[in-house]
């Protein structure tokens, strides 16, 4: 393959997501051509350790024949049929049944129903529709406002981007849409006060939800939406006190709770669903990505009994859905993917000794002069790059320190993502001890080279 030719066609015809095309045209896109296990290769033959699992999704790793075979068999049997007009298909039914069995019941609240989409963004649009319909059916149509958090990521459709709290996204296209508002995120490193413990901060951060509910009037608030751990925002791991206090507040005011687990479900935090890890009780759970390990698009919402009962018993026709809701091929691939996760006990691995080894090795990065705080939760990890470890002084935005580090990762065969001054990873759940060692060697190398470059530029 001639890289330059593909790059030229790419520039001429392909508008990429979240990309500055003027900039891209000057350097040419990296052309990814194949993948196996935890590695991807580009058109120049460079091999890269994919510590981001594609985009937080390839939880079982690349090159799984069982997933290709499941797709092939299903395409030859029934490649597509819709699930509108009182029809259904076997893989969609089997997957919904399987997901319902995997979603744990907390305090008698269970998930027996699934609504399908093809992505996380669509699923969150569906959440907005379901939440509003729920309150309308209960005779409380004034309950419209959904509270989210700054720096959250809930997708890129109009509703998804509005629910998200990324100011750069809101700045384009007149977002957020009405009746969506945001509170501050539980980022201890940034928002903790001097002398405050992480646990104290967790309670204070959850208190911002209560303050917002009181400001708006509880009878106006429909739901609170949050990621268990903010992924795209930079792997922001809340203190352990945060979620229980959020649950207390949500219960007190009767709001619906939406857990956006597009990143955190399917073993990423050591459980099938992340709410189990943190012990809270959502009414709706968004999923996508790793339900198929990214091999084919599929998303959806686990609809808890509280909402399902109202929609089904009182709702009549729900005027909402997608051509590909319950796509038979996507559902067949998801079933094969979940079977791999079960057979290889991937959630248990992350919860058990391999997760502990990953956490221990990652925590060692805290001794690096550039690292202000390095932390993990299951198989997501983040670290913040700082100018001064002791005073926790941060780099300015213009220093683009994350980009410096990311470049050294790339040139040394590692995919690690930069979010401002945070470096983050979400590796496949199949990592072995030796692969974790290799990952840590590559991260440390990138940090050392970044340190040298920042010193040479006089930024340290
Ligand atoms: C928490 C969360 N919600 C929603 C989305 C949007 O998913 P998609 O890109 O499949 O629309 C993402 C994507 O990264 C996500 O991380």
Structure description:
With 460 residues, the chain is of the alpha/beta class. The protein folds into 2 domains: 31-60 and 347-456, Alpha-Beta Complex (Aspartate Aminotransferase, domain 1), CATH 3.90.1150; 69-343, Aspartate Aminotransferase, domain 2 (3-Layer(aba) Sandwich), CATH 3.40.640. The protein has helices at 3-13, 21-27, 53-56, 65-77, 90-102, 120-137, 158-163, 167-170, 188-191, 198-216, 242-253, 274-278, 305-314, 328-343, 346-351, 353-363, 401-411, 433-456, and strands spanning 32-36, 39-42, 47-50, 111-117, 145-149, 180-183, 221-226, 256-260, 284-287, 299-304, 371-377, 380-388, 393-394, 414-415, 417-419, 422-425. A 7-stranded mixed β-sheet has the order 4-10-9-8-7-5-6, sandwiched between helices. Strands 11, 12, 13, 15 and 16 form a 5-stranded antiparallel β-sheet that branches. α16 (353-363) runs parallel beside α18 (433-456) and α17 crosses α18. The model has no long low-confidence stretch (mean pLDDT 97). The structure holds pyridoxal-5'-phosphate (PLP). Pyridoxal-5'-phosphate binds at residues 119-121, 124, 153-155, 227, 231-232, 260, 262-263, 288, 299.
Question: Strands, helices and their partners?
Answer:
Layout: H1 3-13, H2 21-27, E1 32-36, E2 39-42, E3 47-50, H3 53-56, H4 65-77, H5 90-102, E4 111-117, H6 120-137, E5 145-149, H7 158-163, H8 167-170, E6 180-183, H9 188-191, H10 198-216, E7 221-226, H11 242-253, E8 256-260, H12 274-278, E9 284-287, E10 299-304, H13 305-314, H14 328-343, H15 346-351, H16 353-363, E11 371-377, E12 380-388, E13 393-394, H17 401-411, E14 414-415, E15 417-419, E16 422-425, H18 433-456
Helix pairs in contact: 4-14, 5-14, 6-13, 10-11, 16-18, 17-18
The structure holds pyridoxal-5'-phosphate (PLP).
